[in-house]
Amino acid sequence: MSVTPAHRHIHKLIAFRRFSPPEVLNAVFSVLGLLSLYFLLEQTRGTFVQAQHLARSVESSAYQSITSELLELHKLHLEHPELRPYFRNGREIRPDDPNYSKAVVLAEFQLDFFDSFWVQSEQMPNILGHEGAAWKSWVTYMRDSFALSPIMCRHLDSIKVWYTPQFVAFAKASCLPGVISEVDETRANSHHRSVSFSQWKWWRNRWTSGASRRPAASRNTSPA
Is residue 146 part of a domain? Predict the structure, then answer.
């Protein structure tokens, strides 16, 4: 096949064409734009990874706080073995029993711990996801605690407006039938409070007094 003068002319244009200054600038800006986009994506990815690590760190600290307070609860049970049958053996306790006041205080202490755990668990999806083994273990522990402690169930029924309807419904399913009555959700939501773990020190100091009242600051006194 012969090469015509037209073919040679086109070949020269392709091989030796010089770019104009605007075309060079456009090419440079295009490369810089791609590089900027790459670095922006890398920075965003790094920020996302850091946020994930921070969230897991916060969850871990919160979970350690929960387990620490659980140990405090167990310590109270160890310090008062005379109350164990009312929390682990399903034994009833009468209001005229000398240990009744202490049993009510310990029941309320444990109810507040369970309620606080219930609320805070929603903020720890990585550790306490509702499909995970840790959450299922906690649920089993709480269910068994209600099933084996009539005083916890009866006391919860008397103060159920202090807790979320979801938590009360969970406890009701584990207690004996009829012990916990139906919850007025409107009233319950207006009275619900979440007890902070800092208030547990107050409970600890007040334990020996046998008082069954919590600090006023822990209640939500807003009108219904």
Answer: yes
HSE at residue 130, side-chain half, CA atoms within 13 A, is 5
Q: In which domain, by residue range, is 108 found?
A: 59-218
* Residue 9's pLDDT band (cuts 50, 70, 90): low
Domain count within the chain: 1
Structural domain includes residue 77: yes
**Does residue 38 sit within a domain?**
no
The pTM assigned to this predicted structure is 0.62
| Overall average pLDDT of the 115-139 stretch | 84
How far, in whole angstroms, is CA 38 from its chain's centroid? 36
Helix 165-174 to helix 100-121 angle (10° resolution) is 120
